[in-house]
Amino acid sequence: MRRLLVALLLLFSSGLLSSAQIQSGRLFEAYVIDVEGGEATLFVSPAGESLLVDAGWPGFDGRDADRILAAARHAGINQIDHLVITHYHGDHVGGVAALAERLPIRHFIDHGADVGEDERERAQHERYVAVRGERRWTAAKPGDAIPITGLDVRVIAAGGAVLRTPLAGQGVANPFCASFQPHGPGITSRAGDPGDGRSVSLLLAYGKFRTVIMGDLNWNKEYDLMCPVNPLGDVDVYLVSHHGSDTSGSAALVHALRPRAAIMNNGPQKGGAVQTFQILGASPGLVDLWQNHYSIPGGDQHNRAEAFIANLDSGTVAPGSSSGAQPVHMGPAHWIKLSASADGGFTITNGRTGIAKRYAPRD
């Protein structure tokens, strides 16, 4: 009874809606797919053209490819028109082979062949290139546009380079650069991970609606992109960088973007760092944070209410996993769905509950 009363209170006080109450129309949609601390986000244009950013982990009997397929079917698409691989870490590129067995992939986009000296990254890249084969392929550069009918999709970082010319109408001084502190020794050994720093990052716009997806672009590269001027302007929804890890998501990026909502594709024990919750909590104008998982590192002090969390199961260790492996969930999972209209308004839906919240266009 108490949980029911809490749910009813949320419905009336927070503007949450049932899925049946969401207005229909020509919408730009995104499915933030749970791949347990990896990355896979499916964007679908109002015309039905698809762009998938990353494909999750390898292994687990094709678990992540199956979850992407389920989202594609829900969206009514039968192919991936554009696949963007942000970088060659296994939690981003590992699921490509299994995905290609389930859905045709028409166009591959990545940052090119530079993988440095990391042997695991090289091996992942080689497996990915074997799947890519001779199909259409683009090595992305900052400033490039990805041609999708009805959308404006811009590359803002790729291969270690960042956008140097502000987008049209943007380029004001970023006041959050003055307090920026680079990550250094004693904070994290991965703060300067070169693979993360090569991530392909995108800004996507549909009419007045704008969102960004950064891959794992790291803290110090965010400074290169956003300082001394903000070349991107405001966004409506921030798809939280790097699973919510504390090696990304600086105030120089997040606060300058002034998102009204944020969606974090974290795992139970990966991402969802306390620092990330704190920076988001202090972000000017942020109304809500939505999470793919309850964050064990964040604890009850920082996680949002259950209505804003798609997956509550912390998982179990998969059969055959090595000792000390992080728990994984092998069954079906729930996504968070974003539906945006050209006037800048949008709705976010929790796939677990069907409960959604509508955000009106900016004034």
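(ticket continues) Second input and output from the same batch:
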Amino acid sequence: MTSFSSLLLASADDPMSHVVPHTIFRVGDYGISNHLVMLAISAVLLLLFVPVAARSSAIVPKGFRNMLEAVLQYIREEVARPILGHNTDRFVPVLWTMFFLILTANLLGMIPLGMALAPVDAHLQHMGGTATANISITAGLALCAFLFIHISGIRVQGFGHYCKNFVPHVHPILLLLFIPLEILGAFVKPFALAVRLFANMLAGHIVLAVILGFGTVGLHMGGGGYGITLASLAGAIALSLLELFVAFLQAYIFTFLTTLFVGMAVHPEH
């Protein structure tokens, strides 16, 4: 019971302490946060396991390769191709990478690494964490999407013709209003991508920490308070299952909206 109690205390003493970034180590004057470390781990895992699955010589895919091919096929045929048309194969590798990087970071964030290590060494309590619950990380991902969107539009249409898309066919007087709105809209799209992913991943983990906090209260109460702890754990399990769904959903939404914005850039007539 002592180790279980310490685990709950470590997880619920301050709900925000487990979602805000913490500096793990420093490189010169720059601090490397736990979220940046987790994002790097996500990228390394993809670089290690995806090529191995892709090199499999089996005619009938199974296991991880089967799951991987099913997701890749779905993104290409059901998400990208209806929007990008004949440009699908040209841009879908970036969409695949975007989806799996976000998904891996989301899933790694569900592993309570810091909670498990805290009883062993207090300095390790901030290891782990959800990289996509950091607005700086999601802003970086949104910046990549922003560049991808506009570079794709320029490559397909040419720079001059692409710039003309920001000049709508309206009365010349209204151009003074519509051109700034078109330019503003180009920046609002990646901003919405960043905030949506950040807010959804952050909120879920805060709520989960708060529910675990009730379990800590029950342990301190003793007696009937253990019922509160059990109810808290049951709620945390249910919410974790919901967070698992949200991890996939948010990776899909980010990828789908990016695909939609790329389609608007390369096919403005639609």
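Agent notes: The chain has one domain: 2-266. Confidence is low (pLDDT under 50) at residues 1-10. Closing as not reproducible unless the customer responds.
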